[in-house]
Design a protein that fits this description.
By secondary structure, the chain is an alpha/beta fold. It has 20 helices and 18 strands. It folds into 4 domains: about 5-10 and about 455-564, OB fold (Dihydrolipoamide Acetyltransferase, E2P) (Beta Barrel), CATH 2.40.50; about 60-250, Alpha-Beta Complex (inorganic pyrophosphatase (n-terminal core)), CATH 3.90.1640; about 255-330, no CATH class; about 345-450, Roll (Diaminopimelate Epimerase, Chain A, domain 1), CATH 3.10.310.30. Strand 4, helix 7 and strand 5 (about 165) form a beta-alpha-beta unit. It holds the Pfam family DHH.
């Protein structure tokens, strides 16, 4: 099957005179000024963006429901009531749960926790879990990264004398009763200045609010930022505003990971001890390991790791996560290959694949793989006993949440947002759902929507690359949604030799420099051979190993030189 069509475009051309003026004023290179402007950052916000400060975080009490939530939690503490922290099974939920438990523990009020089983219980609050909580005399449930859509479950809990405080960041419906305590910046009536917080970000704001009422140490509060950084990066939310501040400050704490023995053990198992931890290490190394048990078995293993006070237990749990992650990688490879075979070269506007052999904890990765490769909405289903559990990933201009709402008569349950969703339906309805989704896609999408438009910031020849320049670029980090890595074009670069399928040595004939380049699009690389001259789209990364620093090129795209 043909992969996506990609078109590269220059983001914007800025007036040189304006860039020079700002460059002198801020003592930054003109190119860095261009990169800031390309990200929509006006000069009045340069200071906040470049030098995030904990002191400039928003007042947590600006979030609707915060005062009620804080008062109810402090009431439970004063009454010595049992509190249950109920978290989601992904990394955002795991870190949010662990953060809140650590905070309550530091207040000398240890609490209980519950993480539902991904396959057996699914997302959100459920009645059986509430019954178990009631049987243990739990008086207050605090959700982490879930609960906004659990209206009936909250009503049931309250009918049994169990109060519920929701902390969440997912899309909000219109039916939340006014007397519910819901902390969610996405609530239409919530005037909190920043709407893009992750689940762990919302929990941190709750802890920040409580800490003001009980004179909790600010430095101790900051020690939780390592967890906030991991959960926020793992949930792929916008790295702007408060998220940028929380992640940047949290990453600075990660190499030592404070007092969290579990994180230290995981860093060691993953080969990251003593290394500078940036967003890439979290996204590709730490987060998948924390997520592995939640995908394949029980997410509480990861929570135990983040809470343990035993170095021995931390090492055992970290090894278990490492083993589960290897198993997840193997399943993912096999399932993606099988998904390609199911499609067998047939491209539809919406891709739908299903199998009775697939592990339900990995289908989200299959949907993401198909969406990324073919740049079209994709759904993957695992079928068991004629029940299909699915995961959906979408592209701009096709809100999968809204479209699934139009197909609700075929679906047992679903939830999500514009670009991602989870759903359950009778297996016999998969074909009908596929037909309906493609019907809507043909109405809503044009051929242009299936083209992956990618943008580069400027032309920078390889001869201009040096360590001071690359280090200056890191001022813009952490990179992610809302703040992408800068991408440059270098023309007439020679492929000197191939190292393997993903690595090459690139040479700049004019400047006499050579760099190692690597990329993940094997199909793109296979079209080029040593000796060929190409134009590359790249990000210059700083590689540190055993005290030595050098520049490696992350290749984002490659085309024959004569095309441009």
């Amino acid at each position: 099957m043909k992969a996506i069509e990609t078109k590269w475009l220059l983001k914007k051309k800025w007036e040189e005179e304006k860039c020079q003026i700002l460059s002198r004023r801020w003592k930054l290179s003109p190119l860095l000024i261009k990169l800031l402007l390309n990200r929509g950052i006006k000069e009045e916000f340069f200071q906040d963006f470049l030098f995030p400060s904990f002191d400039r975080l928003h007042d947590p009490f600006l979030m609707k429901g915060m005062r009620e939530a804080v008062d109810r939690i402090l009431l439970s503490i004063s009454r010595k009531e049992k509190i249950l922290v109920y978290g989601d099974f992904d990394v955002d939920g795991i870190t949010a749960t662990s953060l809140l438990l650590r905070f309550l523990g530091d207040l000398k009020f240890p609490s209980y926790y519950y993480i539902p089983h991904r396959q057996n219980e699914g997302y959100g609050l459920n009645i059986e879990a509430i019954k178990k909580a009631f049987a243990k005399d739990i008086k207050l449930i605090i959700t982490c990264d879930c609960g906004t859509s659990s209206i009936e479950e909250i009503r049931y809990a309250r009918s049994r004398g169990v109060e519920v405080i929701v902390t969440d960041h997912h899309q909000v419906g219109d039916d939340i009763p006014l007397d519910f305590i819901v902390l969610n910046p996405r609530k239409p009536e919530c005037s909190y200045p920043f709407k893009e917080l992750s689940g762990v970000g919302v929990v941190f704001k709750l802890c920040q609010a409580i800490s003001r009422k009980v004179n909790f140490s600010v430095e101790k509060l900051k020690s939780y930022l390592d967890l906030v950084a991991i959960g926020t990066l793992a949930d792929v939310v916008a790295l702007t505003g408060e998220n940028r501040t929380l992640v940047k400050l949290g990453l600075e704490r990660l190499p030592s990971s404070g007092t969290c023995l579990g994180l230290r053990a995981l860093l060691g198992i993953a080969g990251l001890s003593g290394r500078k931890i940036e967003e890439r290490e979290v996204g590709y190394i730490l987060a998948p390991r924390l997520n592995a048990c939640g995908r394949l078995s029980l997410a509480k293993t990861a929570v135990k790791l983040l809470l343990t006070d035993s170095s021995k237990e931390a090492l055992l749990l970290a090894r278990r996560l490492e083993k589960e992650n290897s198993r997840r990688q193997s399943l993912e490879r096999r399932m993606c290959e099988e998904a390609e075979n199911i499609l067998s070269g047939k491209i539809k506007p919406v891709l739908v694949v299903a199998s009775r052999r697939w592990h339900p904890g990995v289908i989200g990765l299959v949907a993401s793989y198909l969406k990324d490769k073919y740049h079209r909405p994709a759904l993957a289903f695992s079928i068991e006993k004629d029940i299909a559990r699915g995961s959906a990933r979408s592209i701009p201009n096709f809100s999968i949440f809204e479209v699934l709402s139009e197909c609700s008569h075929l679906i047992t349950s679903f939830g999500g947002h514009q670009l991602a969703a989870g759903l359950t339906l009778p297996a016999g309805n998969i074909k009908k759902l596929e037909e309906r989704l493609n019907f809507f896609a043909r109405k809503m999408l044009s051929s242009d929507d299936f083209v992956s438009y990618r943008f580069f910031d400027a032309e920078v020849d390889l001869k201009h690359l040096n360590l001071p320049f690359v280090k200056e670029l890191r001022i813009l980090s952490p990179f992610g949604p809302g703040n992408p890595k800068p991408v440059f074009i270098a023309k007439k670069v020679k492929i000197y030799r191939r190292i393997n399928k993903r690595k090459v040595i690139l040479a700049d004939p004019a400047g006499g420099k050579e760099f190692e380049g690597w990329g993940f699009n094997n199909e793109e690389w296979e079209n080029f051979v040593p000796g060929e001259t190409v134009d590359i789209f790249y990000f210059p990364a700083l590689n540190s190993w055993r005290g030595k620093e050098d520049i490696q090129l992350e290749i984002k795209g490659i085309v024959p030189s004569e095309i441009l």
